[in-house]
Amino acid sequence: MDEVLEAHKKEYGEAPDVVAVAPGRFHLIGEHSWFFKDKTLSMAVNLPVYVAVSKRTDSNLRFRFVQLDDSKRGSLASLKFRKEDKWANAVKSVISGFSSGGFDCCGMNFTIWSDIQPSAGFGITSAIKIATAWCIKELFHFRQCRRVELLQVLERANRLYYGIGNHKADNFTPIYSKEGCVVLTDYSRNECETIPFKFKGRTIILTDARVPRINTWNEGSLQQPENALLLGELRESRSNVRGGWRYEENESERNEVLSVVDEDTRRRLLCVIEEHRCVLDACSAISDGDFSSFARAVKKSHENMRDLYDISCPEIDWILKRVQELDQNPDDLRNPVNCGRITGKGFGRCTYSVLRNEDLEGYKKKLADYERIFGFSPACYVVKPTRGVHLV
Predict the structure, then answer these.
(1) Which residues are catalytic?
(2) Contacts of 192 (CB under 8 A, 6+ apart)
(3) In a 3-state reduction of DSSP, which class is residue 371?
(4) Which of 13, 48, 56, 299 stands the most exposed, by the fewest C-beta atoms within 10 Å?
């Protein structure tokens, strides 16, 4: 916090009027099925993003990202997406979200402080947006702007400024998270639930594999209304299932409904179906304190991403294979003691792993082999589930 205050004073000659901190986050399972109003299981983690703001007497905007040693400029009259503004677009989008909702602001000075760069894929851009929203609400005393209105601000920021759909889990997780919990976002109900994550003797580690990120196919091609209608035909109401429904489990019925699409689309829609089951299985296992069942759901989810959704790569698969080898009996598929999966922005270049404490050093040693074999220098972060956004 002292570094944040000092950086703001150094850049603008004054202390900030308000500071907010929002957590980073990663998705455990289900982040690719939001369009189909499905479920996503996520975790807010102690990779904090600080946003400090002070008022100006004009309508100009100034932005400073301390760790990137980068400054940007703008004004309230030109709140449009500019590729060259890079990370500053996240802040501008939120200001646009307020102004398009009838909230009046003046010029502001912003300082962003985060040890993790937005490109890493651990929810840093989302954290910047959310901390910015909390700062602006406090700075201008928008008392009528409650959480539901702040969510609308963030949705307008995505829809009107970026022209993208709203990944509610990206917003719900850093806002509603509680310490020691995961967050389940239900898109069909537009709500979320926190579930205590109480596996003892385990370490959570995020790994940025540093593989150049490329899109192997256009995910937007799957997100079509006709595909949503097909999956809707396969939904069944179930009162004893979290969220009140599940997908048809009969393979013949699935194949018949999905026979009207090409093979690539069929496989990816099957992945959405399987991911829903993995989310439900993982949530039940977390609630029951059953790590083996949780690990099997995570492993199955990664296999879905690799074999059906086509987003993994040899480097990521190599890392996760090494996680499995840390088990004393790696061939005992019913009782795994470690697990991991691909995660990260878009098509991902990162993994998360949940390891026994005693296996952490062994995992780091295997990453040394990864760098030697593939030539990429990975970055690792030991994390824990943390509380949501708050003013400091």
Answers:
(1) 170
(2) 168, 169, 172, 173, 176, 183, 184, 185, 186
(3) helix
(4) 13
Tens digit of pLDDT for each residue in 189-237?
999 999 999 999 999 999 999 988 777 788 889 999 999 999 999 999 9
Contacts (Cβ under 8 Å, ≥6 apart) of 286 = 182, 195, 196, 197, 198, 199, 294
Tokens 């949503």 correspond to: 228
Q: Of the candidates 157, 97, 158, 171, which has an alpha carbon nearest to the alpha carbon of residue 127?
A: 171
Quick: pLDDT tens for 173-200. 999 999 999 999 999 999 999 999 999 9
Burial 81-103 (b: 16+ CB within 10 A, else e): eeeebebbbbbbbbbbbbbbeeb
Q: Are 355 and 365 in contact (CB under 8 A)?
A: no
Residue 130 has a pLDDT of: 98
Write out the two tokens for 132: 């910015």
Hey, how many other C-beta atoms are within 10 angstroms of the C-beta on 245?
Answer: 13
Q: How far is residue 101 from each of residues 75, 78, 134, 303, measured CA to CA in Å? A: 18, 16, 15, 42
CA pair distance 295, 298, nearest whole angstrom: 5
